[in-house]
Amino acid sequence: xxxxxxxxxxxxxxxxxxxxxxxxxxxxxxxxxxxxxxxxxxxxxxxxxxxxxxxxxxxxxxxxxxxxxxxxxxxxxxxxxxxxxxxxxxxxxxxxxxxxxxxxxxxxxxxxxxxxxxxxxxxxxxxxxxxxxxxxxxxxxx
Length: 142
Fold this sequence. Notes:
Strand order of the largest sheet: 1-2-3-4
Radius of gyration: 27 Å
Number of strands: 4
Number of domains: 1
Distance between the termini: 103 Å
Low-confidence stretches: none
Largest sheet: 4 strands, antiparallel
Helix content: 25-40%
Oligomer: single chain
Number of helices: 2
Structural class: alpha+beta
């Protein structure tokens, strides 16, 4: 009986195929991780924009008109894995009781700051509008 040592060509091809499938499965995780990092960076930037708007609202004397610069769109550059992304965040403000202009005798109100941005625009221009909401109190100086 003649016993040969080693692998047949079929066994080598099957092993190479299984190894290639394993590498492809591992490689498919990296784009998802990058996308998750980008989403997270944009969410953090949006929260910072919202909190900045709320801080400026609280610094504006209650009863005065909101300065236009407070709700102006803000472009933020985020860097994920050495790739820079410019995202424009658009804040808007609403008041639970209409603000000081609705009731001049009111001493306080709750401001809701909503920041929206487009996520995943890419080459085809298709994307999803995302938003974060932050609430905070505004009041007259007593």
